[in-house]
TrEMBL record:
Binding partners and assembly: Heterodimer of an alpha and a beta subunit.
Keyword field contains Repeat: yes
Cofactor(s) needed: Zn(2+)
Name recorded for this polypeptide: Protein farnesyltransferase subunit beta
A Pfam family: Prenyltrans
Length: 473
């Protein structure tokens, strides 16, 4: 047998083995001079790495199942009863994992990529049953959730789906954007519907449509601006941290963010931080995971320019230490997942709404390490939130849906990566830090890295921003 043929066979062996073990490497990364003995060494090394990982899962689960939580609510209520029921179910799931293992080697359920992709593609291409009439105000949201779910799983979007996205969103765009974008046919423009619809167009890279309507959208967004710096959801509607985040993100992506739009917004957001450390929707109400994420992510669009570092500017505006304390308390000891508020149950969507705050803090505070237990979150998502039919769910016993499939997968991506700022010169624009996100994979997995500020796969927001920066030159 010739040397070249033998090298080719060895390379194929290694590629095949690494694929079985969950490691993804291209052939170009492999040494073409490997011998059979080298192949055996690598196989042994990979096996040991997995044993180490499996032992770590066993140790972690043992602690989660046996150690008491840091804080326990002794007041009996319907919430504590529900919490006990959820804990019982999850205890059973984790106990079964340990009992089915050998020699203290516990492996999480794998991410069922093939089934989840099939679920997303079917939902995008098949008519919905009659009971989905309740989602009529969520056309843009459903498109964003499903397309983003696919893209986060590193799957391309079919051209027919891209056309579907554009067609559907143009139908709910009012007066070429001068009236915003509605949630469904015949509905008024709404900031949250605009946010989801624009993200869907960004995901399918329909920049032509966005370019045609973006300056009209700017006029509509300015009509929602309030004197205190916040924005209304629609004319005469509520204004809160959600609507403000939606406006800022879209203005940034479409390169129409300016000083007039941002005036007083950073200081208004600061008034929404509560005594607990998290942020509420409006001042003097309860801290909530979704509102807190929206507030912190907004600062990455608002605080790019100024004296001192980004860390100094952020720490001068809000109480970061108290925020970190509240956010860390949202990860539950037994489950490993997050709740959205104090004394509430774990919910997989907060894998992003709370989990997404951590990379923002890790980047802004230059922590060079994890601020939460990434392995515990992965364990909750992989073992408790996957549905065998495809899609992901809130918690065991619930059904999968588009919303939880998207945000839980974004959270899984965050658990598989760590984040930092890219090296950069002095920022020229308020939103520059939002596009300086860098990541490194720290756990094996099937999810692409994301930009947590936008809730999009890393590179998607950056490509959109660059397109419109070039268009405006």
């Amino acid at each position: 047998m010739s040397g070249g043929t033998q090298d080719s066979i060895n390379t194929e062996k290694v590629t095949y083995l690494l694929g079985l073990l969950g490691r993804q490497r291209s052939v170009s990364e492999l040494n073409p001079d490997l011998s059979d003995s080298d192949f055996e060494d690598i196989a042994s090394e990979e096996d040991e790495l997995h044993k180490d990982s499996d032992k770590k899962v066993y140790t972690m689960l043992s602690q989660m199942l046996t150690k008491p939580p840091v804080v326990e609510d002794s007041y009996e209520s319907s919430t504590t009863d529900s919490q006990s029921a959820v804990e019982d179910v999850i205890t059973g799931i984790y106990t079964d994992l340990i009992e089915m293992s050998e020699s203290n080697l516990v492996r999480n359920d794998p991410f069922n990529l093939k089934v989840h992709v099939k679920y997303a593609e079917k939902c995008l291409t098949s008519p919905f049953p009659p009971q989905y009439v309740g989602y009529d105000a969520n056309h843009g949201w459903m498109l964003y959730w499903l397309v983003n779910f696919l893209r986060t799983m590193n799957r391309p979007v079919d051209e027919s789906v891209s056309k579907l996205v554009t067609d559907k969103i143009l139908r709910v765009t009012i007066n070429e954007g001068l009236g915003g974008i509605g949630g469904g046919s015949g509905q008024i423009g709404h900031a949250a519907s605009m946010y989801a619809s624009v993200l869907a167009l960004v995901l399918v890279e329909d920049f032509d449509t966005l370019n045609r309507i973006r300056h009209n959208l700017y006029k509509w967004m300015m009509s929602l601006k309030k004197d205190n710096g916040s924005f209304s959801m629609h004319p005469g509607g509520e204004s809160d941290t959600r609507s403000t985040y939606c406006i800022l993100v879209i203005a940034s992506l479409l390169n129409i963010l300016d000083e007039q739009l941002c005036k007083d917004t950073a200081s208004w957001l600061a008034t929404c931080q509560t005594y607990e450390g998290g942020f509420s929707g409006i001042p003097n109400t309860e801290a909530h995971g979704g509102y807190t994420f929206c507030a912190i992510a907004s600062y990455f669009v608002l605080l790019g320019k100024g004296e001192g570092s980004f860390k100094e500017r952020l720490n001068n505006v809000i109480d970061v230490d108290n925020l970190l304390r509240w956010t860390a308390m949202r990860q539950y000891h037994l489950e490993g997942g997050f709740s959205g508020r104090t004394n509430k149950l774990v919910d997989a969507c907060y894998s992003f709404w709370i989990g997404g705050i951590f990379p923002l803090l890790e980047m802004s505070q230059n922590t060079n390490g994890s601020l939460f237990d990434r392995d515990a979150l992965r364990t909750y998502i992989l073992n408790c939130c996957q549905d065998s039919r495809g899609g992901l769910r809130d918690k065991p016993g619930k059904s999968p849906d588009f919303y939880h499939s998207n945000y839980t997968t974004l959270g899984l991506s965050i658990a598989e990566h760590e984040y930092s700022f890219m090296a950069q010169t002095k920022p020229a624009n308020n939103d520059d830090y939002a596009y300086l996100v860098d990541s490194v994979r720290v756990r094996d997995g099937d999810c692409s890295a994301i930009n947590p500020i936008f809730g999009l796969p890393l590179g998607v927001a950056e490509k959109c921003k660059e397109y419109f920066k070039l268009a405006d030159k």
